[in-house]
Amino acid sequence: MALLLCALLPPNPPARPLPPPPPLPPPLFPSAAALHRATALLEAYDASHRAFPAPPAPRRGISSSPPAAANDFAARAPRPPLAAAVRTLAAPAGRVALGLCAANASVALRCLRQWTSALSLPRAPVRGDVAEGGAAYLKYDSRPAAGPAAARLSAYAGGYRGVYFHPELPDGLFRQYAVLPLELFEEEGAGAALLDDEEEPGVAYVEGLVAALPVAADVAALGVRLRVLSAEASGAVRLRYEGPPALRRAVEMQVREALRRVDPRILRVDFADAA
């Protein structure tokens, strides 16, 4: 009887496959490896920028001559890796201070809006004023001791153009990097992603590392150019040296050591023969 009932019952419908699990949300804070990479990249950029000779101190009422080489270095720096590094350090920071050196007040205010928006920092009322057409220094503090975010605008007699970036992280280490490009976050979505310790170091990323190395800034004035040809997932990076043959060996050795130190995922650095 039981066998007869089983034969009369309709067969069970085939089991439907379970839907794939939703993707994991991105981490709220970067990993320790990503923080290390961001710190190393910004330290390399800072050292390269400081390698340029500083202009003479301005006299009262007279602006110093603009440090053209340093400003040109900042203007030519690859934006995506720098923007991602800044955002990576700003994400876990309890406080972020910015110092914007600009040609005039309108540029300083526009760039401050870009930086605070990109880094999800609180807006602040801007106090102070600058004579029309005069260079400006805009100081921003996301969390001053006296209360909410604050910003103050004042005249600037120096020649630098860029941003001093000072994030305070829970580890208590002092971090300040300068002078970063004013328009680092000018393009929509610039620096929208944090540095990811699982992301492969592609050509654009390695180009940013090379451009930020102090040795690259030192030899650029000697006619040396370093081109990134490839960056593989295995950690192998291939570059090409272009410049005086007498400097090639020394530059290649310094670049190899510096790249491995900045990003431990880079395991091998080769140089191709000149084209």
How are the elements arranged and paired?
Elements: H1 2-8, H2 32-50, H3 68-76, H4 79-90, E1 95-102, H5 105-118, E2 126-128, E3 136-141, E4 150-155, E5 162-168, E6 177-180, H6 203-212, H7 214-220, E7 225-231, E8 236-242, H8 245-262, E9 268-272
Parallel strand pairs: 2-4, 8-9
Antiparallel strand pairs: 1-3, 1-5, 3-4, 5-6, 7-8
Helix pairs in contact: 2-4, 2-6, 2-7, 4-6
Give your account of this protein's structure:
Pfam families: DUF1824. InterPro entries: DUF1824 (IPR014953). With 275 residues, the chain is of the alpha+beta class. Helix content is 35%, strand content 19%. The protein is built from eight helices and nine strands. It has helices at 2-8, 32-50, 68-76, 79-90, 105-118, 203-212, 214-220, 245-262, and strands at 95-102, 126-128, 136-141, 150-155, 162-168, 177-180, 225-231, 236-242, 268-272. A six-stranded mixed β-sheet has the order 2-4-3-1-5-6. Helix 2 runs parallel beside helix 7 (214-220). The radius of gyration is 25 Å and the shape is flat. The chain starts with a helix and ends with a strand. 33% of the residues are buried.
